[in-house]
């Protein structure tokens, strides 16, 4: 489990959504030579949270210091979705990330947040908004790994 995941996420005051992430590190399988340096570890990213909102607003919040994430969906306004996501992120440096068309939330689409694993507060993150959860997650991972 990464930073306390799985984690429950609110949906406009009712219901819950389970968000999870698995940690993995890929090390190249080619052996290093005894006299040379070891092979570098390949950068691998994982989705740590995502949300989808149909006919409503959702948002993602992220804490760069801890790697914690909060997600919300099903809200009538962008501000409500953002406040909920920050609340679930639950750290003093949590900030709303990602978004569409100049907004910091997602309306009528899915958003995903990916970070490199293992987590380090020096790492970057990537977000993506797409029509489906699978598309958003794939795009966030691809953005993070490049």
Q: What's this entry about, in short?
A:
With 146 residues, this protein is α+β, with helices and mostly antiparallel strands. Helix content is 17%, strand content 33%.
Q: Overview of this structure, please?
A:
This protein is of the alpha+beta class and 146 residues long. It has one domain (7-20, 42-145). The chain is 17% helix and 33% strand. It is built from two helices and nine strands; from the N terminus they run βββββαββββα. It has helices at 78-89, 133-145; strands at 7-10, 16-19, 44-52, 57-62, 69-75, 95-97, 106-107, 110-117, 126-130. Strands 4, 5, 6 and 7 form a four-stranded antiparallel β-sheet that branches. The two termini are 24 Å apart.
What global shape is seen?
A: globular
Approximate helicity band = 10-25%
Compute the CA-based radius of gyration: 16 Å
SSE pattern, N- to C-terminal: EEEEEHEEEEH
List the helices and strands and how they pair.
Blueprint: E1 7-10, E2 16-19, E3 44-52, E4 57-62, E5 69-75, H1 78-89, E6 95-97, E7 106-107, E8 110-117, E9 126-130, H2 133-145
Antiparallel strand pairs: 1-2, 3-8, 4-5, 4-6, 4-7, 8-9
Which tags fit this structure?
146 residues; alpha+beta; 4-stranded antiparallel beta sheet; 3-stranded antiparallel beta sheet; 2 helices; 9 strands; 17% helix
